[in-house]
Amino acid sequence: MSTATETHDRTGDRHTVVPAPGNTARLLRRWWPAAALLVLAVAPYSALPLPGLLDGPLGSPGSLQLLATCLLFGALATGYDLLLGRTGLLSFGHALYFAVGSYATNVFLLEAGLPFAVSALLGLCSGIVLALVLGSVSLRVTGIGFSMVTLAFAQAGSILVSRNPGGLTGGEEGRAAPADLLPSGLVGIEHTANLYWVALAYLVLTLAVVHWAVRSPTGRVWEGIRENERRVEVLGLKPYGFKLTAFVLAGALAALGGLVHLLLTGGSTPQTTTSDFTLSLLVMVVLGGSGTRWGPMVGGILYTWADHRLGDLAGSGAVADLPAVLRVPLSQPLFLLGVLFVAVVHLLPGGLARLPSRLAAVRRGPAATETLPAVQARKENGRP
User: Fold this and answer.
1) Which of 149, 145, 174, 157 is nearest to 95 (CA)?
2) Max Cα–Cα distance, the chain, nearest Å
């Protein structure tokens, strides 16, 4: 297909070449991820001020720390969507594998005295093994039973961490990793840019793994399981093995995220073991668009940014000076996040990922948004 149109004068001579609008749009859709990645990669070198979005310039340590956290949770939500959006598994225990990646690495560092690289590898393997063991048990049941079993495992893990067995977890205070045990290039304010690039690399890796897995033959079976598991069984396939593969892969990506979180925060925190943490991932996925390529990432980034920025807004003097009828709700970040979530779900069914297609449909007019059943009914009634 030609990507341009030519204009001629009366003698037939060619003068100009004008790009076809449709092909230009396709090129933009194809290459915008590479452009976005380039912008994110060079962000630490920028001093661009973004008032309202960030407290300081784009490349300042505080801004990079917030952006790195947003990228981390964008990747974590993308990995969680392997279960929820791609396979149709509603797990309430995904935070457990994230916490294991962080705590296991920390324990190997502090108790065994192993180098960080070895500890990180063992921490990742711990998350994978735990996902394999618990997944093999949880997937023996389906539907709400599966969700309840994963919730029970997550609650057990959270209680275990809070009890601080053998002084390994630090209890409710968590456990910090001494700076001298972490890579020197990833410790200190002066190395915040390096931590940011680590979070960006984790996001790129997660997106690549999820994209490859979804487009593989196994990913097509996941789609069939999500739509109709019984039909997959009729075709002679065993859904259990495919669901366990998705469970372990999502758990491995979460454990890797726990390693990145350990580097970003300099320690392990018990908040990452709670079921509320998994519920936050669920909100991120639904907010961005479950089962879409970019939706969970966008939802994770937006939710994390809003969580931090709305917390600052709630404690600001501008809110404190408002009348009580406004000050009370605006001083609660969770209330503001809840309002944002309800608004997006109500106004944008399918999440933020559906926004471009809906805007395009509005520009095309009412006829473009007419559903297929409506078109068929109109034809059956003899109307044009």
Assistant:
1) 157
2) 90
Task: Tell me how many degrees the CA angle 135-137-140 measures, rounded to the nearest 5.
Answer: 105
Residues contacting 260, CB < 8 A, separation 6+ = 72, 198, 199, 202
CA-CA distance, 175 to 270, in Å (whole number)? 9
To the nearest 5 percent, what fractions of the chain are helix, strand and coil?
75, 5, 25
Structure tokens at 359: 């805007």
* Distance in angstroms (rounded) separating the CA atoms of residues 73 and 67: 10
- Give the dihedral of Cα atoms 1, 208, 83, 236; nearest 10 deg: 60
Contact 287, 302 (CB under 8 A): yes
Dihedral sign computed on CA atoms, order 349, 350, 351, 353:
negative
Closest to 64 (Cα-Cα) out of 246, 196, 226 = 196
- Residue 142 φ/ψ, nearest 5 degrees: -125, 170
Total residue count of the chain as it appears in this document: 384
CA atoms within 13 A on the CB side of 325: 0
Q: DSSP assignment of 88-102, as one string?
A: ----S-THHHHHHHH
Torsion on CA atoms 86, 101, 303, 26, rounded to nearest 10? -50
- In the chain, the amino acid numbered 171 is G
The helix/strand/coil state of 364 is helix
Among candidate residues 132, 110, 131, 109, the one with its CA nearest the CA of residue 120: 109
19: its two tokens: 């790009």
Tokens 């109307």: give the residue.
383
pLDDT tens for each residue of 56-68:
888 899 899 999 9
pTM to 2 decimal places:
0.84
pLDDT at 248 over 90: yes
